[in-house]
Amino acid sequence: MNELHISSGLGAAHQGYTRVMASPGMGDFGLFQPGAGTSMGYDDLKVIEAKKFLEAVAGRAALNSNIQDALSASQVISAAERSAAERRWESSVPVEGTTAALAS
Fold first, then answer.
1. By C-alpha distance, which of 56, 42, 103, 98 is closest to 74?
2. Does the global pTM surpass 0.90?
3. Which ranges of the chain would DSSP assign to H, the alpha helix?
4. CB 29 within 8 A of CB 23
5. Do both 47 and 74 map to the same domain?
6. Nearest-CA neighbor of 2 among 54, 35, 37?
């Protein structure tokens, strides 16, 4: 938790992974931790979730995931399970109103 390994891709000059540590400039991380490489705890994450829930209830814009994102993720997981069970490619139908769709 609190770190990503990002691939530069197959066509990059220097293939491989870059380790990126969560840091104060990433979302609400800086409200809980002063520097990169320090892990956020379970309680920190629950405070952030509660804040985002209350903002949603108050009618503020959902800047992260919403219920449409949950539905979309569920459909992708179901398609992956069917694909594995049936040993063939499966597709997933886009869900209108996801935050990815709203951002584009």
1. 98
2. no
3. 42-57, 67-86, 99-103
4. yes
5. no
6. 37
Question: Which mean pLDDT values do the consecutive 10-residue runs of the chain (104 residues) have?
Answer: 83 82 89 88 90 84 78 93 95 83 57
Could you tell me if 22 and 43 lie in one domain? yes
Do the beta carbons of residue 68 and residue 102 sit within 8 Å?
no
Last residue of a domain, one of 57, 75, 94: 57
Residue among 25, 26, 8 at smallest CA distance from 17: 8
Q: H/E element holding 17?
A: strand 17-21
Burial 12-22 (b: 16+ CB within 10 A, else e): eeeeeeeeeeb
Alpha-carbon distances, residue 46 vs 16, 70, 98 (angstroms) = 34, 18, 22
| Domain housing 84 | 67-103
| Total domains present in the chain | 2
Quick check: 56 and 62 in contact, CB under 8 A? yes
- Token pair 């869900």: residue: 95
Q: Is residue 28 domain-shared with residue 53, that is, in the same domain?
A: yes
